[in-house]
Amino acid sequence: MYDVAVLGLGAMGAATLYQLAKRGINAIGIDQFNPPHTNGSTHGETRLTRCAIGEGHQYVPFAIRSHEIWKELGNETGEQLLFETGALMIESALGGGSVHGSANFLDTTISTAKQFNIAHEVLSGQQARQRFPNFATNDQDKAYYEPGAGYLKVEECVSAQLNRAVELGADLLIDTKVHSISHANEHVELATSSNPIHAKKLVVCAGPWVKELLGAPYDTKLTTTRQVLHWYPIAQNAMQEWKDHPVFIWIHGEGEGYYGLPSLDDPTLIKVANANYGEPSAPDNVNRDIDPKEQTEMFDVHLKGRLMGIKPQAHKSVTCIYTVTPDSDFILDWHMDHKNTFVVSACSGHGFKHSAAIGEAVAQQLIDGTSTIDISAFNMTRFKD
Questions:
Q1: What's the gap between Cα 105 and its chain centre?
Q2: Crossing angle for the helix pair 11-22 and 355-368, to the nearest 10 degrees
Q3: Cα–Cα distance between 21 and 25 in angstroms, integer?
Q4: 227 within a domain of the structure (yes/no)
């Protein structure tokens, strides 16, 4: 009988298990794969991180605290996980667009930076182009620069937290699928592909598999989507301009946007992806094949004429999965029918940067009944039906 079982060991599950272990809780983490893996949402080298959050003010405390935890964890393990390269966010003069459900992404980013005293600069298109000549901004464009933003090494973040959790006494059960969850006699029983697991409390962080594990009402509130990440070559004569470049988000047109980061495996490449949601897809039936037309469209719609010195033929592309709520906000709440089960899901494409602090907040909820960071904005009661 464990005190807590954590189901799903991606970004949120690894962080939660680590924080529980730090508090001395008898916990076990369970995953149907061997994390970090390429079957869910937590892979592909890097994720962008920033402290001023265009998706809403309610996220900023998570982002700020997560940066602190990543640095603390880096000191514990001797491995740098957070790289503060700076972030450039651009909104085209042609019109803004929705990013992760936020219709005023850049303006909200600026207002959160001001409210939380986050170091930043607001730049004109001309100023942005002069400072970062590889970004072909127009004079009428609007830009925001945050020097403390950057990227996280995602697989390393997950591995570091799981390794530390084990060192602190947690158990891991990997390559083990949970077939069903039963609630009885004030504990939870997980029927698995090996032996059953019993725990006093359960945290469900299973990402795109939450729907099948929990059923109603989560099955009608969560949508899983196929997303594609692309790596494009940098032209030889543009290498210097792209050296040590900031991460970036560029919003253009009506509802169109994309983001980019450096490639860790090969510095002659740049990693980019569409910031909007892809087509719905069941997690066990995601089309992992990339049509060359997808690569061509990514370049023609987003990169062409905006990023200087990027070659049009993608070097490689991979898929991942987003799990999305109707309002693109997270779910961080006790199960509506079972008060010993906490649900952490639907990161809606912008969760990794917050995951370290969310893991801490969830651990506090389970142990103390409350958390340092207010999570009330993320409960299920906001959905009326």
A1: 17
A2: 50
A3: 5
A4: yes
Q: What is the pLDDT, as a whole number, of residue 254?
A: 63
For the chain, what percent of residues have pLDDT higher than 90?
Answer: 90
Assess whether 126 and 245 both reside in one domain: yes
The residue-averaged pLDDT of 158-182 equals 97
pLDDT-based confidence at residue 360 (cuts at 50, 70, 90): very high
Strand partners, 190: 181, 197
Distance of CA 159 to the CA centre of its chain: 16
The pLDDT value given to residue 362 = 98
Say whether both 232 and 180 belong to one domain: no
For residue 96, what pLDDT is reported?
A: 62
Same-domain status, 111 and 241: yes
Cα–Cα distances in Å, from 377 out to 42, 92, 216, 331?
24, 30, 21, 9
Give Cα separations from 160 to 19, 74, 149, 176, 365 (angstroms).
12, 8, 21, 21, 23
d(CA 103, CA 82): 28
Euclidean distance between CA atoms 173 and 275, whole angstroms: 34
**Does residue 78 lie in a domain region?**
yes
123, 7: one domain: no
* pLDDT classification of 117: cutoffs 50, 70, 90: very high
**Residues 134 and 211 reside in one and the same domain:** no
Contacts of 285 (CB under 8 A, 6+ apart): none
Domain that holds residue 38: 2-44+154-220+327-382
* pLDDT, tens digit (0-9, with 9 covering 90-100), for 30-63: 999 999 999 999 999 999 999 999 999 999 999 9
Residue 313: both structure tokens together: 């033929």
| Dihedral angle sign, alpha carbons of residues 231, 235, 238, 243 | positive
User: Which H or E run includes 14?
Assistant: helix 11-22
Least confident of 23-27, 116-120, 181-185, 227-231: 181-185
Do both 355 and 337 map to the same domain? yes
Q: What is the CATH number of the domain that holds 27?
A: 3.50.50.60
The tokens 């450039």 sit on which residue?
Answer: 88
- Predicted confidence (pLDDT) at residue 146 exceeds the cutoff of 80: yes
Q: Do 248 and 135 sit in the same domain of this protein?
A: yes
- Dihedral of CA atoms 158, 161, 166, 170 in degrees, nearest 10, equals -100
Percent of the chain surpassing pLDDT 70: 98
Residue with tokens 């997950």: 158
